[in-house]
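Person: Please work through this fold.
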Amino acid sequence: MMGEYLLYYNDKLFGGIYDDRLLVKVTASSLELLPDAHQEIPYDGAKPMLFVTEIENKNYLRELISAMYEDFSETKKKSKKKG
């Protein structure tokens, strides 16, 4: 089963709320800003994510999500081949 809530910023999935836990994707920025975070599995078969415990600090969360957004590569649109 997927998470209870999936969280997006500017159309990019950065994490979710799973069993009352805020988990975010593992990126260079999230590892840097959450150096002591535990990696947890949100649901069976999923990749590990970082458990965010500092959920009351809005400025910290804004910084974390903005930094993670910069880590995400732009989604490339597939072009049809001619011929």
